[in-house]
Amino acid sequence: MYLKLTHLLAVLAAVPAVFSSPIVENSICAGQSTISESFIGKDKNVKVQYISCAAGPPDTFQARSVKPRQTNVCGKTCNTNCFTPSGGGPDPNECHVIADALRYESQNTGALFQIGTGTNNTITMTYRSCLSFFVNQDFGPEVYCRTDFADVIDWVAPHCQSAQNAHGGNCVASDQTWYIQVQNSTAPH
Ligand SMILES: *[C@@H]1O[C@H](CO)[C@@H](O)[C@H](O)[C@H]1NC(C)=O
Ligand SMILES: *[C@@H]1O[C@H](CO)[C@@H](O)[C@H](O)[C@H]1NC(C)=O
Which superkingdom, per the lineage (predicted)? Predict the structure, then answer.
């Protein structure tokens, strides 16, 4: 996975600010509400939320294909975009706690997790300064591997820091049917 990810650091480009909601912790869309909440990891210290967005899901891209059945997207490549400018990004060490919690759950709960569509298309992971979330932009449910999620977090968090003139970033699936974002949990990107 790491080898696969190394050639993925494609664009270090500014992406437009998409989320304009007020700054509250873990706010990623307008009219956000929590569908369910739990804690994962060996120490049960990483918060997991399925969230719903009243004003529609926080899609940054339109899905391009209609796939009504559940689609397994494990192992699919994604392209990294860092958010400029530098300063105020998440602490990569705290993001790494989320990645390790995902690896722990992969071993103890299951390799896969499911993510819905429509207003139930987003799952967030939070530990201290680090917020990471997965958004399904496809028309049907998706299944993804917890270890892949962990690897993307461990790639994006340290590679979208001040040294790269960045404060977090995302990794958008090559076919744009999903993306994973890593950002400061108390600041908008
Ligand atoms: C996250 O953002 C908050 C609010 O802007 C800031 O005070 C904090 O230093 C940031 N965290 C890190 C690790 O930079
Ligand atoms: C949201 O999606 C998850 C994953 O597919 C599912 O387990 C859960 O039941 C859904 N919740 C609602 C309220 O639709």
Answer: Eukaryota
